[in-house]
Structures are given as structure tokens and as C-alpha cells.
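Listing 4. Sequential folding, example run.
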Amino acid sequence: TTTLTEWAINYGTQISDSFELNSSSNDVNNIYATSNQNLGTETPILSVPSDLILTGQKARQELGTETNGAEQSLMLSDHQQFYLFLKVLKEYELGEQSPWYYYLNSLPRYYSNGASMTDFCFGCLPPYAAGLALAEKRRLKQFTEALNNVSFLSMESKSNEELTKWAYNVVYTRCVENPGGDMVIVPLADYLNHGAEPNVYITYDEVGNSYVYTARDIQAGEPLVISYGDSTNPSNLMARYGFLDDSSPATFCKYVVDNPTFEMFSLGYPSSMLFYNDGGISNEVWDVLLYELLKVSPDEQQSFYQAHTSGDEGTKASYHEQYFAQTYQAIQSHVTYILNEINELGIGIETQMAQGQDAQRHPRLPLIMGHNEFVKMTFDNVQKNLDNISEEQQTFYQAHMVGDEGTKQYYHEQYFPDTLAALRKHVDYLVNELDELSENSWRKTFRKDET
């Protein structure tokens, strides 16, 4: 029997002696690459010839004339993943006659991502994560329906739900984007797992050959990892790939806006709206929620946004100070809502399990419960942070009102670096403004004050 590495070598792949495939002790479907040796930075790991790499563009060139109807029915701006989906199905039908037979036969049959989830799974997830998972399920449905307009595949294959779901998952959990914008599946390199801090990277030459190199020193036994996407959005990684990245230092705050504007994207929605595991809240959360609150006062909303785009931290800070109570309450309400959702889901899951809906019947349940617990832990810490913010702000204000200079001094010392940073940003903004006016006497005054 030919092994995967033997197959790859027969087709021209060069594999370092340090490259090794292992399976997880608690999940036999999780096969991943490790190094069995200590390696230095920029050590070559793999070299995969372009002929062995499955690409969306090559699949479209090969199959496109027979799939025009399918492409039109999808109404998508980018069809590369769909053509990879068709290519996988075509090679599957060829069986052992396919050059990729040993590779495809090595791939997992079981997946835990959104496309593989059931209605029970969706009902166990918070709204944001459930929406992401359902989007994967809908895309799978689009792909399978488009197969009705594909003539070169057999009806048996097109009507086999397990087969089409497997082909879809092969593409969406293993393809990556190359520098030219093409979606590609690189055999063996697709066994590199995800890591928030990658220790290897993939590169390509001008003819499409792919290479994997170490990005830093690696210890023997260490998994070889790349980044599959934003590590601060574990819900998205779970929906697409079917795993929980619990090493993530933060998570998207789950604040969803219907029809977000260009201004909101500029303020950091949604990618920079983060809740950190230690309870921290990114500035973008405060910015976006304040911008939303200022909708009732369009002039102030526009003034706040202009201050953001011009780097006028002083004006932004004044709006945040003026509307702190309202913004604080909006964040507090959102955190409470999400925590209530997760707690209710937890009660529902416990009830279902008591009625026999356990992990044996729903094997993705442990993953979902782990995801929900990760989100809950982060939001619990944010809640504690909000409680502390409220108490500290009130204590500082009361000290100011009664003339308690000792307490005020304590808070000034505790938050001196943050206060100094805010002042520096404000001074830098004003100096830049004055530079444009070229009023050197005023500029010298500000530089003196800064010192």
C-alpha cells in the first residue's frame, strides 16, 4: 500500500527528514504536521511542485466550458472554491485512476464545521456563532444545487449528500490563498494546523511551486503551524474549520450591526472590536458604540467621526467623556445580553443531555460547549472589568467633589501612563495642525509645554 508521503515523493515533492505527520490522542481525525528535530529559522520543510497543487484557476480552465450554467446559477463574485469543489468530485469519480487518489484517500471523512452541523448544533450556539455556521451550511446548499447544471459528474455523485459535503469540506478547510489571489490546495502543506503565532510560512515561486520554511527556531516535537485567519475571532474559525482556538488572547465582542456604514468600518467594525481574555475592551468597541449612540445628533456624530479620521484624540476624548455613561451602559447591556444567551443555552443543553441528546448522538456537542464556555469566560471577565471601571470612576469623582486629594493622587499615579499617552496624542495632533499653519512661535510654545 502506497503511503501519503510515498505518493507525494513519487510526484516530485521534496520532504525534509524533520517533517512528520501525527494524530491527536483524543481525535483520530486531527492529523497534523510536526517536526521531529530541532530546527533553525528559515529551514526548508517542504517543496511541492505546481503540477501537484490543486488550484481554482487551473480547475476553471479544465472544467469551465462544461460548467457555465452552474457558475451563473451561483451568482458569486468568486468561483474559485466552487471549481476546486468540482475538481475534487471529478477526481473522486476517477478513483485509483486519479493522480490524487492517495492524497484524497488520506483526508478525513468527519468534520465539525458549520457545513457539517445539524439544526440541533445551531440551536446550541449563541446568535453570532450560529449565524456564521449557518452561512457555511447555506453555501454548501448553493454548491450542491449548482451541480444540477454540471454534466460531467454522475447523478449518483451529485445526489450523494455525504460525498458532496465531504468535497465541500475538503476545499473550505484546506484551501489557502496564494499571492496571486488564487485559491489553492497544497498537498502535505495542508496538514499544517492553525496557530495564533505561526512558526512556519508558505511561499511560491514564479511558476507556482510551493515551499514551506520555518519562521523561527522550532523544538523537536513541536507542531508546525500557520495562520488560518484572525485568531481574535474563534467563532469564525470554528464555523469554517471546525475547531476551537482556545489560545486566542481575545474574541470579537459579538456586537452585530445591521447594514454597517463605511464610517463604522473605518472606526474598526467588526475586526478590531475585541474583548480580551483578561477583561480588557478595545478602544474600537467604545468608538463604534459611541458613534452608534450619536445617531440622534448627526452634527455631533459627524464631528466625532472627523476627529477620528484626522487623529484629533482630544476631541474624541471629550466626546467619550461627555457620553461615557451612555456608552458604558450600552456595552454593559450588550455583555449582559450575551451572557444571558449563553446561560440559557447551557441550561437547554443540560436539559437535552438529560433527555439522551448526548455527545454520542451529537458528536459536535463537546466542541460547541467548549466554544460557549470560552466566550462566557471572556465575557465574564469583561463584566468584572466594567464593574471595576464603574466603581473606580465613581470613587474618583466623589474624591474630587469632597476635596480628597489623597484618593485623587492615588488614581492619577495608578493611571499615569495612560493619562500621559492621551495627553501626548493630543499635543502631537495640535503640533501637526500648527506645523501646517507654519506659525513657529506657537509651535515653540507647545513644544515647551510638552517638555
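-- end of first protein; second protein begins --
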Amino acid sequence: MAGGKKKKQQRGNKSRKNGSSGGKKPAPSLEDVLTQAESAMEMLDIDMAMQLFGYAAQVLRSRMHGTDAGNGNEQDKCTLANVLGKMGELKASCGDVEGARNEFLDAIELLGNQQETAEVMQGDVGECNIATAQNSESKAGLYLYLGQLSTGTEALTALRIGVSELQRTVSILDRLLASKDDEANGMDIDGELNSLNLKRFMVETKRQLCAAYCSIGELYLTDLCEEPDAENSCEAALKAAVEIDASAQTESRPFESEIGPSQPDALQTMANLRLSQSRVAEALDCIMQTYIRMKVGCEAMSGLVGLATEDKEGVQEAKARELLEVDAASTLPECGFRLQTAKIMLECTSLVDDGKNSIKEKCSESAIQVLGSLLAENDEVIEVWYLLGCAFMSCSPPNPDSARHYWENAIAMLTKAKEQMEHSGEDVTCELEVVQSQLEEVTKKLDEIGEAMETK
């Protein structure tokens, strides 16, 4: 009997043991959740990323309510602000503009919405440490996102606050780099701050500041073009952007392998402004400087579709150039930027005095290289085929045979698109009208080539 009881008791112990091991799994750490959320965001798994960031926000809010004010609470605030910023980005990418705006505003409130904007304007950067710089840089990013989601004066206000926060960040970093104390000379891979990391942070901040000034300039070229002082305000913003861009370009060289080269947004936007002012020579200079910054990559890509420029280099030089081209092609500006660059180039060639054929030829050839890089990436964009035809006709002398090739391809693609729309069963009246108009325009250009050939 006693033996039986002992056996039963052992079974009971085993059962309790199994029960404890098979119980509820411990909740994942916040760090693991945030890592998974970032990974889902990178993989464009929006739903999963939103769920994970939402869970992280819940945990952080719960922790903050249960913690007395202090360093831990402040760190949680910063982390929560970052999480809300990510959720805002995700909502914006899904078209939920109002939801995104609310997330960004909540994040800004967490980071502090004190009188810092006024202080920055007066040159007071407040407490000078890396945490303050990071806080300002984070707030700047949120305000710049708000600017992108807004229009008119509302967008301008958000962008200006973002600029002020970035200026504050630069001022703090300047002081830290100039200081001799342990904090400025300290940070290693364990989280301490060193001079190299500060310089990289400075470069990244200046790039953001340049982009923010460009956004202000573009706003004055579009939404706010009727404002009383629009031209002068645009000029001031873009001059600041060009100046900061030049500084960031020089300072970024040690870090280009990690963060890539500076993009020439400021020069392109300045070219746009100069065209609107009918200052064609200056516009041409700016847009050609823009092209120089991406020339190697564009030529490498355009060579893949048979549009390479003549190369008379020796074998060794060609091999060295090939390595350079691979790197340059991988860091080219995004497609929309290059397309706009080509359009500005073609507008410049149409306005340049016919007596300056060498300048026109150089600009036309550069436009062909830029468009060639786009064609190599995606040969299904009708506008690229159309613009290539225009670029060949803008050469001195024009190249009608090449132009015909690209325009005929554009017509074939437009005709196919029109047929698909007509058989889609949907109401695409407006889209059909656009396609029909484009077909007529390209057909007219082809007819003009034919007439010109017949008169020769």
C-alpha cells in the first residue's frame, strides 16, 4: 500500500512538472519585438510590422505609466516616439494620411514640444550632449514627414520647424566635435561617443537639412508660387541647400562606402528655379553639375541598352573603370529624380541659342545617358522611350533614325495600353483620353520626321 502511494505521488509530481513546462511561454522581449518589426518593415510586410510596432507601443505605454519619472522613463519615451514614427510611416505608405499625421504628432509630443524652435532661431542650442542632438534630429524627421503630408502654408510651417531642429542638431554636433571632454572623445561600439561617429552623424544631419531646404524651395515653386515674396524665399532656401550640399559632399567622403554619395537634389531644384526665371545659362550649368554627380553610373547603365558613349581606354583602364561603374550604378539617384533631370536637360536644349551647338550637343548626349540608365532598369516605361526620341532629335544635328526607333516603340506600347483599357470592362474614360492624346502627339512627331526626310 505504501509503495502504491509513493508511486502515485511520483506520478503527481511528474504531472506538476509537465504542467509547469507546458504552461504559458514567456512574453518576447521588447528588443526582439522591435527587431522583428523593423525586419517586417524592410520586407514590406505592412500588416505584420503594424502589429509588432502596435504591440511594442502598448508595452512601452504600460511601462511608462508604471514608472516614476527618471532616466528609464525618458528612454521609454524616446523609444515610443520612434515606434510611433515608424507606425506613421507605415500608415502614410498605405494612404492613411490622417492616421499617419496623428502618429507623428503624438511622437513629437513625447519628444517635447517646448520653446526649442524659438531658442534655435536665437542661436541657443540649450544642453549640449549627444542625447539632445539625437532628440532634435528625431523631432526634425517627424516634422519633415508632416511637411510631406501637408500642403501650402501648413507644409511650410512643418518644414521650417524641421529645419530649425536640424540646425540645432548641427550646432550641438559642432560643439561636441570641438570639445575636448571625455564624452566627445569617447563613444565606441558599446555605445560611447567618438569623433568618427559624430562626424558621420553630422554628415547625415546635413544631408537631411539640405533635403529640407530643397522641399521648401519646391513648395515656393508650386503651392506657394503666388506668395508675395515667393521668388526671394525660394532663392534663399535653395542657396542654403546648395551650400550645405557642398559641405556635406566634402565631409561624406570617408563614409561613402557605408552611407553612399550625396545626392544632387539641391542642384537640380536650383536648375528648376533658374528655368522659371528664364536664366537658361545658369539652369544649364546647374543641371550639368547634377549630371556630373551621377555620370559614371548613368553611362554604365546606358551601355547595357546600347547607348554607351565611345570608349577609347586601354584594357587596364577599362577594367578599373568597370569596377568603378558597378559601384556608381548601385548608388544612382532614384528613377523619378533621373527622369526629372532628363526633362530639365531637354528643356534647356530647346532654349539654348542655336549658335551654341557644342553646349546643346553635350546636354542632349547627357540626357540620352540619363534616359538610357532608366531604360536599362525598366524598359516598360513609355515616357522614357518617348523622351529618348526627343533627346535624339535635340542633338546637333538631329538623329531622326534613332528618334524614329524610340517613338515607334512608344506608339506600340501606347497602342497596347489603349487596347487593354478598352477591353478591361472598367470605366477608364479619362485614362483613355490621356493615352489617345499621347498617341496623337507621338504620331505627329513621327510624321514630321517623315516630311523632313521627303524634302531632302
